[in-house]
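Notes to self, Metalloregulator ArsR/SmtB family transcription factor:
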Amino acid sequence: MSAPLYQLKAEFFKTLGHPVRIRVLELLSRREHAVSEMLSEIGIEAAHLSQQLAVLRRANLVVPRREGSAVFYSLTNPQVAELLRVARTILSGVLTGQAELLADLQAAEPDTVPERRGSAPR
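result:
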Protein backbone atom coordinates (compact mmCIF):
# COMPACT_ATOMS: atom_id res chain seq x y z
CA MET A 1 0.00 0.00 0.00
CA SER A 2 1.40 3.41 -0.91
CA ALA A 3 1.66 6.32 1.50
CA PRO A 4 -1.29 8.73 1.67
CA LEU A 5 -0.88 11.98 -0.22
CA TYR A 6 -0.82 14.06 2.98
CA GLN A 7 2.11 12.00 4.24
CA LEU A 8 4.01 12.50 0.98
CA LYS A 9 3.33 16.24 1.18
CA ALA A 10 4.65 16.31 4.74
CA GLU A 11 7.86 14.58 3.62
CA PHE A 12 8.18 17.06 0.75
CA PHE A 13 7.88 20.02 3.11
CA LYS A 14 10.36 18.42 5.52
CA THR A 15 12.83 18.37 2.64
CA LEU A 16 12.24 22.10 2.19
CA GLY A 17 12.61 22.66 5.94
CA HIS A 18 16.28 23.66 5.98
CA PRO A 19 17.56 27.20 5.30
CA VAL A 20 20.50 26.03 3.17
CA ARG A 21 18.24 23.90 0.99
CA ILE A 22 15.88 26.83 0.50
CA ARG A 23 18.81 29.09 -0.42
CA VAL A 24 20.10 26.52 -2.94
CA LEU A 25 16.66 26.23 -4.52
CA GLU A 26 16.35 30.02 -4.68
CA LEU A 27 19.69 30.25 -6.49
CA LEU A 28 18.71 27.49 -8.89
CA SER A 29 15.37 29.19 -9.52
CA ARG A 30 17.27 31.89 -11.38
CA ARG A 31 19.56 29.61 -13.39
CA GLU A 32 21.85 26.59 -13.30
CA HIS A 33 24.78 27.00 -10.88
CA ALA A 34 28.12 25.29 -10.47
CA VAL A 35 28.81 23.93 -7.00
CA SER A 36 31.72 26.39 -6.67
CA GLU A 37 29.34 29.30 -7.39
CA MET A 38 26.90 28.08 -4.76
CA LEU A 39 29.68 27.76 -2.21
CA SER A 40 30.66 31.39 -2.62
CA GLU A 41 27.03 32.58 -2.68
CA ILE A 42 25.88 30.62 0.35
CA GLY A 43 29.09 30.76 2.36
CA ILE A 44 29.14 27.30 3.92
CA GLU A 45 31.64 24.45 3.98
CA ALA A 46 31.77 22.24 0.89
CA ALA A 47 30.87 19.13 2.90
CA HIS A 48 27.74 20.80 4.29
CA LEU A 49 26.63 21.94 0.82
CA SER A 50 27.27 18.45 -0.51
CA GLN A 51 25.02 16.95 2.19
CA GLN A 52 22.22 19.39 1.39
CA LEU A 53 22.51 18.81 -2.34
CA ALA A 54 22.29 15.05 -1.70
CA VAL A 55 19.01 15.56 0.18
CA LEU A 56 17.65 17.64 -2.71
CA ARG A 57 18.82 15.02 -5.25
CA ARG A 58 17.15 12.18 -3.31
CA ALA A 59 13.92 14.22 -3.29
CA ASN A 60 14.29 14.66 -7.06
CA LEU A 61 14.24 18.46 -6.75
CA VAL A 62 17.65 19.05 -8.35
CA VAL A 63 19.71 17.29 -10.97
CA PRO A 64 23.50 17.44 -11.42
CA ARG A 65 25.34 17.84 -14.71
CA ARG A 66 29.07 17.29 -15.06
CA GLU A 67 31.18 19.48 -17.33
CA GLY A 68 34.84 18.59 -17.07
CA SER A 69 35.71 18.75 -13.40
CA ALA A 70 32.82 21.12 -12.58
CA VAL A 71 29.42 19.96 -11.40
CA PHE A 72 26.40 22.10 -12.23
CA TYR A 73 22.97 21.82 -10.65
CA SER A 74 19.56 22.80 -11.92
CA LEU A 75 15.96 22.36 -10.80
CA THR A 76 14.18 19.27 -12.06
CA ASN A 77 10.91 21.17 -12.25
CA PRO A 78 10.34 24.92 -12.75
CA GLN A 79 7.31 24.70 -10.46
CA VAL A 80 9.72 24.56 -7.51
CA ALA A 81 10.65 28.18 -8.34
CA GLU A 82 6.95 29.05 -8.44
CA LEU A 83 6.43 27.41 -5.04
CA LEU A 84 9.20 29.57 -3.58
CA ARG A 85 7.62 32.69 -5.11
CA VAL A 86 4.24 31.78 -3.60
CA ALA A 87 5.87 31.22 -0.19
CA ARG A 88 7.49 34.66 -0.43
CA THR A 89 4.12 36.23 -1.23
CA ILE A 90 2.45 34.48 1.70
CA LEU A 91 5.24 35.51 4.09
CA SER A 92 5.12 39.09 2.84
CA GLY A 93 1.42 39.23 3.63
CA VAL A 94 1.91 37.73 7.09
CA LEU A 95 4.75 40.09 7.94
CA THR A 96 2.86 43.11 6.62
CA GLY A 97 -0.09 42.18 8.82
CA GLN A 98 2.21 41.79 11.82
CA ALA A 99 3.90 45.13 11.14
CA GLU A 100 0.50 46.84 10.91
CA LEU A 101 -0.60 45.23 14.17
CA LEU A 102 2.60 46.32 15.88
CA ALA A 103 2.14 49.89 14.60
CA ASP A 104 -1.46 49.90 15.86
CA LEU A 105 -0.36 48.66 19.28
CA GLN A 106 2.39 51.25 19.51
CA ALA A 107 0.05 54.05 18.42
CA ALA A 108 -2.60 53.03 20.97
CA GLU A 109 -0.29 53.40 23.97
CA PRO A 110 2.79 55.38 22.96
CA ASP A 111 3.96 56.13 26.51
CA THR A 112 4.06 52.58 27.81
CA VAL A 113 7.02 50.26 27.77
CA PRO A 114 6.15 46.57 27.56
CA GLU A 115 7.11 44.61 30.66
CA ARG A 116 9.50 41.73 30.26
CA ARG A 117 8.35 38.40 31.57
CA GLY A 118 9.75 37.52 34.91
CA SER A 119 10.74 41.08 35.75
CA ALA A 120 9.18 43.39 38.27
CA PRO A 121 6.92 46.19 37.00
CA ARG A 122 8.65 49.48 36.33
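- The longest helix spans residues 79-108.
- The mean pLDDT is 89.
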